[in-house]
Please model this.
Amino acid sequence: MPSSPTSYLDANAGIPPLPQIREKLPGVLGQLYNPSSTHQAGRQAKALLRTARTQVTRSLGTLLSDLNDSQWIWTSGGTEGLQAAIRSTVLRAPARVWFYSAVEHSGSLGWLSQIEKNPDCKAIALPLDAFGRVNVDAFPKAYENACQSGAIRPGEAFLASFLWVHNETGIVQDRLTELLQAIQERGGYSLIDAAQSWGKIGPGAGVSLALADWVAASGHKLGAFSGTGVLAFSARARKLLEQCPSFAGTQQFGLRAGTENLVGAWSLGEAAELQAWNQCADLARLRNALEDRILFEIPASVVQGKGVPRAGNTLNVSFHEIPKTSLPLTDLLDLEGFCVSSGSACSSGVRKPSHVLKTLGYSDELALATLRISLTPETSEHELIEKFLPALKRAVAAARKAR
Model:
């Protein structure tokens, strides 16, 4: 057991509800009536829900210009939003081809088997660059090849999905507007996984919802309760969702039925308003300081994405000369009281190489010796440099001795 309190450096998996939310919760519990009821208690709950919607629209609108209150719905999280968009666009709507990114989150890639089972649908991998970003310059040629092979007819609707900020590497999909325009010009719908983008990307990096047809995000990445999220959509994507609602009913404009998760919605509204990630520039300074020390003090280490745009809180680092049979670095660090991960949280507990790093050309051995260190808004320099770095050096040294 660690001799000191656990240090949490796995923010990309999610962070606990923000302290301000936890403090306010007791006062909100007495207002959690059914917001669909017409009596006084229901109206009170409806007002709470309406305030949360206003807060989310205002915050998400810094990421998606042209967003209004009727262009998004509450979901249970990013995975539901991603899969609702794929189902609505490909499996039950005019598109029959899905261009996907092989380094996407499993919340999207989980649909590959469903697409492959459907003889009327086809999945095609998007061209990627060396950092796992969709190659904007190569996309037109990939689309042309799909047309020539008969996989898709010119002008036919299709879906193209990808991450805005990669959950494992923190690398940002740059030239985003160019990519969205290239997709739309060819008759395609776009689906953006923005789970790591909301709050971490400045307003100047946002895109128009007129180009981004579907955008899914999670609440627990922002500091709200788990089991919350949003799915935003363009006007034309909304028409697809109307034909294929998540659940049939009257709530949420008839697009996702069921009594809303009121406490979850409230927490997401509060988190959106609090803007816990507004100091990402400071986190980037801390991340860079740790990164430089690791590269200087731990031989045979390599940082994924160094020198390209990344989320300021994320560091993905690999260590050569660690055998596959060694105790995982995550376990060694956990014993010292530090919570880090080796990839997506949805793959935690499974001792296998990251599909992301494998796609980028990593060997099994190197992929298994990779850590995702993602800072929280509370991470301090003392915690990171004076405590975590020495523990990391000990863990790497211990793992290398197993060779």
